[in-house]
Amino acid sequence: MTAPAAPARSATDIGEVLDAGHWTSLQKTVVALAALSIVMDGFDGQLIGFAVPVLIKEWGVSRGDFAPALAAGLVGMGIGSACAGLFADRFGRRWAVIGSVLVFGLATCAISLADGLWGIGILRFIAGLGIGGALPSSTTVTAEFTPARRRTLAITATIVCVPLGGMLAGVFAGFVLPTLGWRALFLLGGLLPVAYGLVLIVALPESPRFLARRPARWPELARLLARMARPVPAGAAFTDAGEQRLEQRGGVPALFEAGRARDTIALWCAFFLNLLAVYSAFSWLPTMLNAAGLDVAVAGSGLTAYNFGGVFGALLCAVAITRFGSRGPLLVCSAGGAVTALALTGVDIKTSTGLLIAGLGLQGFFANATQSTMYAVCAHVYPTTVRATGTASALAFGRLGAILSAFAGAAVITSGGSSGYLVLLGLAMAGVAVALALVGRHIPAMRPAAGLGAASVAAER
Fold first, then answer.
1. Could you list the residue range(s) of the whole structural domain that residue 341 is in?
2. CB neighbours of 348 closer than 8 A, spacing ≥ 6?
């Protein structure tokens, strides 16, 4: 990437401009657009989990037979996560988000035409490229349109849309599967993000921090700032002084510089184990409950409850992080996910179904709260030049854990039943707690009395 020209002495610092003043309607609209992208991501990503029990019965295949098809989608997510971050840092956040949404929408539509596991696996791989790319790109857009004092809550409100999308997928599947079948589930479920991708082409602007690093696009940035009620003089030059002071080059090697090596490795481990637990639920929870004797509708409600709890957990954890910093709330949530999963091994699924569903909602509360708010930690640890790459690399390692879940879930349910499955979730979340304890640059607590200056310092570590 060509280095930007040296800014004039009077250049406008885009970081100070974004962190000062009101959080305008345009900024909130962009965050809402990014959040809806993640709703679509969570919606399409979890449709397969509701369809698996139906497809196993219709096609006469085993859980183990289905594991490679699930893994193919998760491999695609891992590749998409890594490539989208590099693409977003080089070519812009806007097209990274739009392209991701269109790719997973079109591929999901095409699954409705599949006639075997190979077809589903290939199409899930393609859909995974988009699903994996949407998360880091959309969270980066949110981070770079939001003042520092609001950033943690805004990023979490964006990421919480993954379980929100999954919850909507459960409601959607509950209506469509019994009446129209699994093919309609994928066709209609894919058309929604395709339509939304076309909306994003018209409505989503480029990130101001991305534009600030490209002098040829400074006029576009000036127009964008005017729309954000932050006008600048004609012909203004821009800099991102705080971020450029922290980082002079991008790419994966920069993730290990300036004292970030331990945090990078710890975050990779935390994402790996957390997504192992979360995707074991997304992919196999309805199947596990169905295998334990519950009908498909009740089994699906277990995953819906898991996602429902996750929505509230993520939002409450974000509020706690704003007040107390990220270390304590994240350790409590990850440990709570471990304890809850292990405690559920003592619940009889057939005689205490209601208690089990409620417990799964609580487990989702802790596990999804941990997952959602870890993205805010990534946005805090990494500066602009490598923020998308840092977030994407952590998520790529998370996707490796998700890939493992495709095989581990099938094997554990077959050999250990529901108890073995819940132990898997509990041990994974315990590992997340250890990894997060090793992160050094957690988000500090915001001090309201200190004003915007303290918020800006916290944002720049």
1. 13-232+239-459
2. none
For the stretch 359-390, pLDDT in tens is 999 999 999 889 878 877 887 888 767 777 78
**Residue 4 belongs to some domain of the structure:** no
Closest-CA residue to 166 (of 116, 131, 120): 131
Torsion of CA 37, 72, 274, 342, to 10 degrees: 120
CATH number, domain containing residue 422: 1.20.1250.20
Cα separation, 83 vs 189, in Å, equals 25
pLDDT at 196 > cutoff 70:
yes
The Cα angle at residue 368 between residues 424 and 195, in degrees rounded to 5: 120
Measure the CA–CA gap between 260 and 152, rounded to whole angstroms.
20
Helix pair angle (182-203, 161-180), 10° resolution: 140
In this structure, which amino acid lies at residue 222? Answer: A
For the chain, the domain total comes to 1
> Cα–Cα distance between 48 and 104 in angstroms, integer?
13
Question: What is the end-to-end Cα distance of the chain in Å, rounded?
Answer: 26
Distance of alpha carbon 1 from its chain centroid, rounded?
Answer: 27
What's this model's pTM, rounded to 2 decimal places? 0.74
117 or 387: which carries more pLDDT confidence?
117
For residue 7, tell me if it sits in a domain: no
CA-closest candidate to residue 124, choices 59, 78, 71, 190: 71
